[in-house]
Amino acid sequence: MSTATAGGAATPGRAPSVPPAETRDRKKKKSVLGTRPWLAAVFLLPALALLGALVVYPICYSVYRSFFDASGNGFVGLDNYQEMFSDDATKTAIKNNIIWLILAPTVSTALGLIFAVLTERIRWATAFKLIVFMPMAISMLAAGIIFRLVYEQDPDKGVANAMWVSVHDSFTESPPFPGAHPRPDAGLTESSGGAYTTEATAKPGSPASIPLVAAKRDDIGGAQTAKKAAPEAGKVTGTVWFDFTRGGRGGRGVIDKGEKAMADLKIEAVKDGRVVAKTTTAADGTFALPATADGAQLRLPAWNFSEPYNGVDWLGPSLVTPAIIGSYVWIWAGFAMVLIAAGLAGVPRELLEAARMDGASEWQVFRRITVPLLAPVLSVVVVTLMINVMKIFDLVYIIAPGPSQDDANVLALQLFQSSFGTNVNQGLGSAIAVLLLLLVLPVMFLNIRRIRRESRR
């Protein structure tokens, strides 16, 4: 064999050696790992040991423990799983977990998407994102305590009901004297629904006296002093007052000095079950009805004495789960917004501008271009939140009060109650843990497939 020289003549020599395939593969493998595989395994061993001790062993032991009874000594086979699916508490927990799985990730992702898109066009976007993301810095325990106070039934304590009652009272008149009523000997009879009607009929020129008691001090404190109504020709007059004097020095049915008027009470004149006239007491407790009220009975409608609107029972059996989901969304909407905003920063602006130049509206640009381009990021957010929601425990445990905790039950809480509650049965608790694992696995599998698909691009 010969090789060519610079002058073109061939000179004898050896051809360049080509390394065998094994050598090339070994070098390639070494270049990828940076060292030999066994050495990499040595460095991975501590992490693998921790993974086995903290993840693999607990999973295997939970599966094993689920086949034994509460004492852990008697093998019961699949009895724990049968009991789990026949137990009403577990059925409620599964139903609530499904509600959580549908609502919480969907609402959090939707709000995160809206916040991320809208904040692109405002100057104070960074400050807004910081405020929305701030709840992520609060622990679930602290967030649960915060929202337990927010959802307090008393409007003077709970923020949600304080706002709700304020809006309600802006459009609806509140009753003036909740809980007030006449004395048994006051000449008024209570009808169905809580209204009070005079036994005697009203006559012009003969003022009626309607004494009441049991009014709340806050409702009476700023009232004017009661005044005896003067007779008026052709009109039925009278006075409604708070018949109470401190120290018991006053007389019953008599307007004593210093006794307070009951203003803004509605009064109806009723004949044969039909209302013929209406009026409202003045600031001094007096009232006047037209001549049509002659011979009618005076009725104080039940509305005067009904309890004021006290807001919504947020933590009651029907609303406790949506209320807790609301607190979860408050925490995790910022997480969704930050991830979606990062994905939105990588969207080509030329596509958006081209669509606008072609006449597309902002809604069409958002629906047909922005959302499809953000689909990978949205899937990451949804899957992450779904995995997180399946394990929700602390918010439900802290926010739901004792009477409503069964209605707000979720699988993780049921697992805790079965394993460490009053009727301890760790076999049943282990069965619930296995069920929870099986429910999370499909979501994790989809997430792994998505990650592999992304890595091939």
UniProtKB/TrEMBL annotation:
Biased composition (Polar residues): 189-200
InterPro entries: MetI-like (IPR000515), MetI-like_sf (IPR035906), UgpAE/MalFG_permease (IPR050809)
Keywords: Cell membrane, Membrane, Transmembrane, Transmembrane helix, Transport
Keyword DNA repair: no
Pfam families linked: BPD_transp_1 (PF00528)
Segments of this protein annotated with the region Disordered: 1-29, 175-208
Membrane spanning residue stretches: 38-64, 98-118, 130-151, 328-348, 369-387, 428-448
Domain ABC transmembrane type-1: 94-447
Signal peptide interval: none
Gene3D superfamilies xrefs: MetI-like
Low complexity bias locations: 1-16
Membrane topology qualifier: Multi-pass membrane protein
Nucleus keyword on record: no
Subcellular location: Cell membrane
Family: Belongs to the binding-protein-dependent transport system permease family.
Name listed for the protein in its UniProt record: Sugar ABC transporter permease
